[in-house]
Amino acid sequence: MIIAGTVILAALFAWSSYFTVPSDSIAVVQRFGKYSSEVPSGLHFKLPFGIDVATIVPIKRQLKQEFGFTTPGANDAYQTPTDGRLETEMVTGDLNAALVEWVLQYRISDPVKFLFEVREPRATLRYVSESVMREVVGDRTVDEVITIGRQEIESEALLKMQALSSKYAMGISIDQVQLKNINPPGPVQSSFNEVNQAQQEKERLINEARREYNKVIPLAEGEKDQRIREADGYRLKRVNEAEGDAARFTALYSEYKKASEVTRRRIYIETMQSVLPGIKSKIVVDQTTGSILPLLNLGGQKGSQP
User: Closest Cα to residue 21, out of 36, 40, 47?
Assistant: First the structure.
């Protein structure tokens, strides 16, 4: 019996003298209930028979809490809601009701504060998260909560939850707040659906009008610019032609003043050179000719002209 007792005592001594810490965790060691040290992952030894107690804390694992719904297979008692319907029922800033579901993702940043500063830190975190979410939702209208204000709600709730977590020294770092389903209560669900459909129809018509506007207005602007450029080109052409004609006549008049007789004769000759080739028959008379009647071909074809 002495030998058997010795063996049993040795087995209990050996069994209570070592512990293993997973790779994503650390162990907080307490000696006679008082904090002693923190040990990293791996195999470690401690004083047996409950003198040293090691508590595993998963500091590298991302934990989460769900509000309004439950993920199947969750093994954390504080991850799932006790009364999801009650948690999700909220009043918005315009005194409407909404059912808000969200997920809180967090990590344990300080194991000592997590274990010793706050009693039941996970439960406290659920209360903090619910309180902050009701405050943030209560500052907005139901349309903002359901449609366009989701990202702002997530960002503001994250900042306020982290501030309260630091204030209460829970040793928790909040990574993300993500909104899930946001719906109106059941009795008014159909009315909200009709309002959403009307808003979507409104947006569709506005987008179609903008598309038509973007298609027609640039085309009209292009045609307007083209007409303006054509008018400017025609104006420049006529102005340049007029200025060229004026310059030519001015130059001709200057030469005319220098030698008026010669210039007059040259103009006359140039005019004859351009006119005479178009005349079929020509009669040249001098000063001694008394009449041109003998020179005319009176028997010619009727209606012909010289």
Answer: 40
